[in-house]
Amino acid sequence: xxxxxxxxxAMFDIWSLQHFASGIAMAFVADLLTVKVxxxxxxxxxxxxxxGFFLVIIFALxxxxxxxxxxxxxxxxxxxxxxxxxxxxxxxxxNRLIGDTxxxxxxxxxxxxxxxxxxxxxxxxxxxxxxxxxxxxxxxxLQRFLTW
Length: 148
What we know:
The protein has helices spanning 16-36, 45-72, 80-87, 93-113, 118-134, 141-147, and strands at 2-4, 10-12. The chain is mostly helical. The radius of gyration is 16 Å and the shape is elongated.
């Protein structure tokens, strides 16, 4: 196992940046949910923050499950082979369970310290996804370009 490199071999890869930005964006949504949905329960600020943390973790791990199924081709849909090829292999377990989750948690932490970073993080996430899905040939193209 590597610390940094291709997602099939390493704990962290170039997509860790996306997970960090997504953690900020998810923390923003979780913060809104704790105010709008759970606001009538008069939770303390610490309880709201903890509830937001758990919402972010649950969503991040849910996405990792979906991503695993997409990588292995178990959710094929109309573009099965193309989607599996785009993902370029199955993430190393440490990448999926430790690296990506830590990046999301760091994003949640940063959002709770600097809420004004939510808009730049959301813009970065949308641009990142657009470039990587519609311009680059696969998800690991940028990683290979930067490390080879």
